[in-house]
Amino acid sequence: MELHFGWSPDSPKVLEEYLKKARVQIIQDPITVKYNPNEEDMMACVEFGEAFGKKFLVQT
Length: 60
Hints:
Elements: H1 11-21, H2 39-59
């Protein structure tokens, strides 16, 4: 197993591959923020979470 750190640009793809191998359905592309998030990044994360939650609820 390779070690990937949160600041590694390939971490979201690596996590997605682990989830696919575990047969977890991917319902949304990942979001990435480099370094320290600014206000715009934080709002994008909130919007990401809201969209993910809505998609998740539709799936269940």
